[in-house]
Design a protein that fits this description.
By secondary structure, this protein is an alpha/beta fold. The chain has one domain: TIM Barrel, CATH 3.20.20. It is built from 20 helices and eleven strands. The strands form four sheets. The chain has a four-stranded parallel sheet with strand order 6-7-10-11, covered by helices on one side. The chain is globular.
Amino acid sequence: MSEPWILSPERCFDPDPSQRSLARELYISVEELPIVSPHGHVDPALLADPNARFGSPVDLFIKPDHYILRMLYSQGVNLEELGVPTRDGSPVEADHRQIWQRFADHFYLFRGTPSGYWLAEELINVFGVKEKFNSDSAQRIFDYLVDQLSQPEFTPRALFKRFNIATLCTTDSATSTLEHHRILQKENWGKRVRPTFRPDAVINLQTPGWRKHIDQLSAVSGIDITSYHAFIRALEVQRAFFKRQGATATDQAVIIPYTVELSDRESEEIFQRALQGGITSEEVNCFSGHMMIEMARMSVEDGLVMQIHPGSYRNHTDAIYQRFGPDMGADIPVSAEFTRNLHPLLNKFGNDPRLTLILFTLDETTYTRELAPLAGHYPAVRLGPPWWFHDSINGIQRYLDQVVETAGLYNLAGFNDDTRAFPSIPARHHLWRRVTCNWLAGLIMRGLLDEVEAYEMAKDCAMRLAKRAYKLGD
């Protein structure tokens, strides 16, 4: 057996003994609080079926995790070697033991990264692995995990309860029938697992197969979408359906957070050209910007929280996208501008108390220059947590240092894990809790907070801010 694998109980805390001691005590006060996961990408089918299983360790840890895929690909490991299915069905590595061994051989690549931290937490704290994961231990750990995954204690539903998840929100296309959520609602899981309305595929007129998505929206809404007005009505119908199934939020992904208000005539003309298959890039951008304002208008009327995730140039490597499809780790951040781009939307709805608009960014330069001042002024605006490339020890610290002085803590939306990797949920939340507690301890050390305030703020960061921002109730 290789050397024991032990996590430091002081991880994420400052090396200064006094701050570390304060951070530890603050963390103890929130460590066991329920997890509120208001935004993520867990497949609801995992929870709808009480007999669902995760599959092999490869199915669980490697294939669905774009963080792992991108790192291994960057070091010359082909996705075929990791068993990632191809779009055309051409053969890839099918031996899961071999894939696992290749992963173990390259596990050192994740040293010092958030992925390495999460994986260690999962393997040690969730599955009870006791020896370091490396080339030598790979097959022993594979056999151990196979045995663990066969046990009733390691079904998705069992882990959901063990993780003490109060609420988990999934992300679902606007055309979804929410089949799995309806099953969960019938079994009284409706308040614990909620859908989120994602309209990207029908709003982005350049989505591959856009017309097919529109036909699907027609089918699920019962509205024949032959006009822009019918399109808007179909979206409103689907939003109401999602809300009845427990949804409290929507989510949109855009490259830039551009907003513009078009007239009904302009919107109709662009929509008709899209239906006919003749649309320009400028019209696509204008329509997307207009629909951002329309989605805000709908949120004012139906109360669904509006999330915007901008700034990712998706599928940057054409060859990867064509061979394997999206979400393979080939997404790259781009710069974003919020102040001018969001002005039309915020000028119209930013002061309306019925709107909650949660803004995310992959461009950290916008924290102090734009996002914190916007959230520190507009009643509708809340700031989402560090996202994707910045969901890390240093990323969380930078975020708090840059936004709280201007926006205040209570204009933040708390934490969400934004993950497809279900077993990583507690690791991600506890990383956030450790770093926020360490940050609060630093404020105590500098005389900027007293301990009573810090303990309250630690609980707010852990779950109360997220519950409030996403309207998740008690």
